[in-house]
Structure formats: C-alpha cells, structure tokens
C-alpha cells in the first residue's frame, strides 16, 4: 500500500473527506537539500495538493493529521486500465491495419485502436463503484 501523510481540509458527504498532502522531493530530502539541484527544485515547486479520500469510518474533523493510502492492487489495476488497454489495442489494430491496408491501414488502425482503448478504459472506470479508486484514510492522529 502506498501511504502519505495529509491534513484534513474539510468533511464531505457520504463518508468522504478532502485532505491536503505536501508534495515531497523525489529523494525525500536530506541535510544537503540546499546544495542539491533536486532539493532546490523541490523546494521551489513544493505545494499542497488537495484530494478527495474515503474516511474509512473514522471520526475526523478539519485540521486532523491523517495517513492516507492507496492499495497497490487498485494502483496496478488503474495503470493497466489506463495505459495497458489503449497500448495493446493500438498495437493489435495497427498490425491488423498493416495486414489489411498497408502502411496507411496501419496508421489508421493504430489510431482507431488507441481511441477505442481510451474509450473502453473510460467506460470501464465509470462502471466501477464511485469510491473504488479513492485513497482511504488509514489512521489519524499522526504528528
């Protein structure tokens, strides 16, 4: 499970909360943050991201510090859905187009496969329960 520390910004309906996370640098920061190019860029780009999360039945109020997480299975499913399906259809339809219509057929087939893969991913994601891809609040009271 991927976890991140956040602060509750507001309470929403249906067991959801808005939380603010602070973007960290790629290396996580260290003592040499000011002399490192990555640290300097991370400091200038650091800002808070406000996201919607499922409260997981916890009693929360604005200002609470919490840990939010995304189950790795959900993350993998989302990546395969959003990247894998369109790329697979792009390749398969491109090869079919090459066989049926040469180079122009390959281009048209690949574009049609990509668009249909994106549309299928969109349709599939909208058939899922609304909270399936939301991060969940794991625990509260983290300093």
Annotation keywords:
single chain, 143 residues, alpha+beta, 5 strands, 45% helix
Short description:
The protein is α+β, with helices and mostly antiparallel strands and 143 residues long.
Structure characterization notes:
The protein is α+β, with helices and mostly antiparallel strands and 143 residues long. 45% of the residues lie in helices and 24% in strands. A 5-stranded antiparallel sheet has the order 3-2-1-4-5. The chain is elongated, with a radius of gyration of 21 Å. The relative contact order is 0.19. The model has no long low-confidence stretch (mean pLDDT 81).
What oligomeric state do these chains adopt? single chain
| Number of E-type strands | 5
Q: How many helices in DSSP terms?
A: 2
Structural class: alpha+beta
Radius of gyration: 21 Å
Estimate percent helicity: 40-55%
The mean pLDDT is: 81
Uncertain segments of ≥5 residues (pLDDT<50)?
Answer: none
End-to-end separation? 20 Å
Run of helices and strands: EEHEEHE
**What's the overall geometry?**
elongated
Major sheet: order of its strands? 3-2-1-4-5
Please summarize the sheet with the most strands: 5 strands, antiparallel
Classify the beta-strand content into a percent band: 15-25%
């Amino acid at each position: 499970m991927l976890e991140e520390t956040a602060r509750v910004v507001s309470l929403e309906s249906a067991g959801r909360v808005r939380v603010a996370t602070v973007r960290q640098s790629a290396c996580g920061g260290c003592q040499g943050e000011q002399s490192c190019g990555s640290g300097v860029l991370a400091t200038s780009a650091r800002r808070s991201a406000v996201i919607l999360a499922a409260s997981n039945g916890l009693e929360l109020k604005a200002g609470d510090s919490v840990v939010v997480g995304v189950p790795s299975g959900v993350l993998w499913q989302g990546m395969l859905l959003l990247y894998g399906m369109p790329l697979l259809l792009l390749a398969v339809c491109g090869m079919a187009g090459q066989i049926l219509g040469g180079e122009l057929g390959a281009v048209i087939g690949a574009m049609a496969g990509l668009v249909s893969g994106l549309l299928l991913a969109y349709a599939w994601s909208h058939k899922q329960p609304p909270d399936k891809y939301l991060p969940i609040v794991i625990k509260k009271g983290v300093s």
